[in-house]
Amino acid sequence: MAKASTSTTINPAEAAHFGQLAADWWNPTGSSAMLHKLNPVRLRFIRAAIDAHWPGQEGSFRPLIGRSALDVGCGAGLLCEPLARLGAGVTGVDAAPENVAAAQHHADEGGLSISYRCVDVAAMDGTFDLVTSMEVIEHVTDPATFVAALAARLAPGGLMILSTPNRTAKSKLAMITLAEGLGAIPKGTHDWDKFLTPEELTLLLEAVGLRIGMVRGIAFSASAGLHLSDDISLNYILTATRA
């Protein structure tokens, strides 16, 4: 069993910010409305990545039966619940106790068996077949330490899926000037200087023995809304496996 790191990845100010949103997380028209629009786009990519990595279950409603999944920075469980419905034994971890409580309550109400923990991934033991972390790396204290902690949780033959905003002029305009400025995203959610380019994230993943697989952009247009795209200038989602 892999030993946990003693380094922390949690930024207390970030955890407090997201903890304040916990009660409204599952409201599709509330402060997390953008996440509710983003989640189906992520899930389309995640399902395609699962089918490509573990072929033979493409027609199944539960392709993750018998597999374990860890969602890091799970919030109130917006991704954990679909992963559980896909058949995985899911563990969700988050730095904010308010989020963990909201996630557990929502899962219990829905009859879903999901293990939620308020813990730093760097302090965990054990490995998982699927490790996901959506829009989290830009909020941690040290991305390199965070990536190393994620890699330590990935089982042999496992699949990692990460998404994060790209550090471009387009993302600054769209996500901070417009989205936060107009109230579509709560103010103070993002620090553009902490966004990672795909090249920077690739170097971090390669440094811990992982290689990039599928990469797609998450783009926005007035006609299609948020959607998977070859344009990675706003946001991107990728898979990684052991090299």
Overview of the structural elements:
It contains 7 helices and 8 strands; from the N terminus they run ααβαβαββαβααβββ. By secondary structure, it is α/β, with parallel strands linked by helices. An 8-stranded mixed β-sheet has the order 3-2-1-4-5-8-6-7. The protein is 33% helix and 24% strand. It has a single domain (12-51, 63-242), classed as Rossmann fold, CATH 3.40.50.
> Which CATH first-tier class would you pick?
Alpha Beta
Shape: globular
Provide the gyration radius in Å.
17 Å
Helix content: 25-40%
The structural domain count equals 1
Number of helices: 7
Query: What does the largest sheet look like?
Result: 8 strands, mixed
Note the gap between the termini: 20 Å
Can you identify the CATH superfamily? Vaccinia Virus protein VP39
Q: How big a fraction of the residues is strand?
A: 15-25%
Count of extended strands: 8
Topology:
Elements: H1 12-19, H2 33-53, E1 68-72, H3 80-85, E2 89-94, H4 97-109, E3 115-118, E4 128-134, H5 143-152, E5 154-165, H6 169-180, H7 198-207, E6 210-221, E7 225-229, E8 235-242
Parallel strand pairs: 1-2, 1-4, 2-3, 4-5
Antiparallel strand pairs: 5-8, 6-7, 6-8
Can you give me a brief rundown of this structure?
The protein is an alpha/beta fold and 243 residues long.
Keywords:
243 residues; alpha/beta; Rossmann fold; 8 strands
